[in-house]
Specification:
binds adenosine monophosphate, single chain, binds malonyl-coenzyme A, 12 helices, 4-stranded parallel beta sheet, 9-stranded mixed beta sheet
Length: 472
């Protein structure tokens, strides 16, 4: 199947440009470079990509799609432990990077500079829809991140559903500055533009001023951001006003606070479209371009998606807009399982085949969904990044002075939640040392913002830490 949309009725625009952080390529130019990548990696089981916000990342990912080789985006700031885990667990045979962008480490697969590869013609062998396109590493509640297998068919279904709901066409100019190693920035923000055929202006980083400039100078019409980005846009009213000429502002990856929704609507004249998704499910619920947008609500199931709510006993909860339950989904955009983890994959489904999101929601009689929380305190969302408490706890416990550690998300005005740690440790560990210790091992956003040194952690009769009692 052609994931890049050449088989769609509208087809891509002849003049489609993909511009990342000020450097652009035409669609044809990008496909030539991607074909050079495809020729180099053909036959590999999987390849990793040092996923900076760059044209090289896009060429490498598209090269993987052309070759039918699963691509593992490697967050560029991931620490050595995280990187070693992702490379080892995925079995990536090669590591693609822009020339000079990656400092090779011990045990890394061979490094291939994307810039040095020739240009070529795309391979003509069709790749089946159930083939894995991407392996995205994402945090669970405990342990190291898991590789989420995302098939080509899931991506195509997810993108087509969004294009329909958002009336996204080749006439749009998509603008965002999100990282290119997660669903939001990479799947929606790059593969979406390529499949729909709309030009892409990636601003390098999601800065308010850069969004404003893209609206004014590049005809930006469709804008993506996580809530932290929209809140920062609102903090620069001139930038928010510059978005008045846009067609649609979309928020997702974390809850959009109601005051941010309202302020953005006031300043930009656009009530933002909020949508809800996960790495494992892509986007399943969204407000529509041709419909209502309600602050605090994430919208209606996308075409092809079924949702239901389950109580703690597993029984279905009524869709009365009030009774919360775990949101469960069935949809064509669901993942193909966790790599090397059949038990975790099985545990994420109910016996009757629905995916358990772990998010607590209500559904109104009119079908509108509201996310009210998470079933587990062990998943934290900070600035739109998903962070597993267990991974941070393990990093803290690796410090010789640390005896016990418990990590939770606490409210943060800019990031939604911040990582906060409670630690029992010997006198040689102070807050700064421990924050730096984690930062050296994991991505910068996973390090605790605050470390409370405590004498003991609250535990129940079974000896398990009761996280809801931390800090009280
Ligand atoms: C940056 N920092 C963070 C952080 N982002 N710390 C905690 N949580 C975060 N999210 C760190 C930086 O490393 C830096 O550390 C310091 O905070 C100050 O950074 P900043 O300059 O203020 O932040 P910035 O780099 O501008 O990043 C903020 C951000 C970024 C919002 C742009 O967090 C971001 O790009 N978030 C998007 C995440 C995303 O795409 N999620 C989608 C997941 S897919 P230091 O040490 O340098 O001071 C998904 C599915 C779906 O969820 O539904 O879409
Ligand atoms: P990730 O796997 O990084 O995509 O994170 C998925 C999680 O992000 C979901 O399980 C939700 O908890 C959260 N999330 C995504 N979009 C929204 C939204 N619009 N509102 C509230 N939470 C969201």
């Amino acid at each position: 199947m052609d994931l890049l949309g050449a088989d769609l009725p509208d087809g891509p625009r002849e003049d489609q440009e993909i511009r990342i952080d000020g450097r652009g390529l035409t669609r044809a130019g990008l496909l030539e470079r991607a074909a050079g990548v495809a020729a180099e990696i053909a036959g590999a089981d999987a390849v990793a990509v040092h996923a900076t916000a760059s044209l090289e990342t896009v060429a490498a990912v598209v090269g993987g799609l052309l070759a039918g080789v699963p691509v593992v985006p490697l967050p560029p700031d991931s620490g050595p432990d995280e990187r070693a885990h992702i490379l080892g667990d995925s079995g990536a045979a090669l590591l693609l990077a822009a020339r000079g962008a990656y400092e090779p480490g011990e045990g890394d697969p061979p490094l291939v500079p994307v810039d040095d590869l020739g240009r070529g013609d795309a391979p003509s062998t069709p790749v089946p829809g159930d083939a894995t396109a991407l392996i995205l590493y994402t945090s669970g509640t405990t342990g190291a991140p898991k590789g989420v297998l995302i098939t080509r068919a899931a991506i195509a279904a997810g993108l087509d559903a969004l294009a329909e709901a958002w009336q996204w066409t080749p006439d749009d100019v998509l603008v965002h500055g999100l990282p290119l190693f997660h669903v939001h920035g990479l799947v929606l923000g790059v593969l979406g533009a390529l499949r729909v055929g709309s030009p892409l202006v990636h601003t390098g980083r999601p800065k308010a001023a850069a969004y404003a400039a893209a609206a004014q100078d590049d005809g930006g019409s469709l804008f993506f951001g996580v809530p932290t980005v929209w809140s920062r846009v609102c903090a620069e009213p001139g930038a928010a006003r510059a978005l008045r000429g846009a067609r649609l502002l979309v928020s997702g990856s974390a809850p959009l606070p109601v005051p941010v929704f309202e302020r953005l609507a006031d300043l930009s004249g656009h009530r933002p479209v909020e949508r809800y998704g996960m790495t494992e499910t892509l986007i399943t619920v969204s407000a529509r371009a041709d419909g209502d947008r309600r602050p605090g609500y994430v919208g209606l199931p996308l075409p092809g998606v079924e949702t239901r709510l389950a109580g703690e006993d597993g029984a279905e909860v009524p869709s009365d807009g009030e009774t919360p339950g775990e949101l469960q989904v069935r949809a064509p955009m669901l993942f193909g399982g966790y790599l090397n983890r059949p038990e975790a994959t099985a545990a994420s489904y109910t016996a009757d085949g629905w995916f358990r999101t772990g998010d607590i929601a209500t559904i109104g009689p009119d079908g509108w969904h509201r996310i009210v929380g998470r079933a587990s305190t062990d998943l934290i969302k900070s600035g739109g990044y998903r962070i597993g408490a267990g991974e941070v706890e393990n990093a803290l416990l690796a410090h010789p002075a640390v005896r016990e550690a418990a990590v939770v998300g606490t409210p943060h005005p800019d990031l939604g939640e911040q990582v906060t740690a409670y630690v029992v440790a010997g006198p040689e560990a102070d807050e700064r040392t421990l924050i730096d210790f984690v930062a050296e091992r994991l991505s910068a956003h996973k390090r605790p913002r605050t470390v409370h040194l405590v004498d003991s952690l609250p535990r129940n009769a079974m000896g398990k830490v009761v996280k809801t009692r931390l800090g009280r």
